[in-house]
Every structure is written in C-alpha cells, then in structure tokens.
Amino acid sequence: xxxxxxxxxxxxxxxxxxxxxxxxxxxxxxxxxxxxxxxxxxxxxxxxxxxxxxxxxxxxxxxxxxxxxxxxxxxxxxxxx
Length: 81
Prior knowledge:
Elements: H1 2-25, H2 34-59, H3 61-80
Helix pairs in contact: 1-2, 2-3
C-alpha cells in the first residue's frame, strides 16, 4: 500500500532527523545540565509518540485515511475564505 510505505518512510526520516539533532545537541563528555535532561525527555516523548502513531495507523488504516481526508478538507475550506 502506497500510503503505508509513504508514512513509514516519513517516520524513518523523522527518526533520522531526531537522531542527528540529538547527536548535535549532546553535551561534551562529563557535561550534564538541565537542557540536556530536557532534550533527553523530549526525545523519549517524541519516540513514544511516533511508535504510538505507527501502531494506530497499522491497526486502523481506513480510519486514519478518512481522518486525514476530513482534516485536509477542513483546512482547505478554512484557508479558502
């Protein structure tokens, strides 16, 4: 299914981007602070959200597509005015 493979590739791209950002933002060895703690927590939360989204899409593909279509129509109508 094209939508599923497209979504999977987008999730993989987001994961790669997060990994790259995490490597750039990681503190020097021995250095730790509130910012690095917050970044680690944010990274964990984003990874959890991505995993949950992937599971939901896999379990309910038709509902996901219908919801995306409805949201797209709503946004299209709101921005057309």
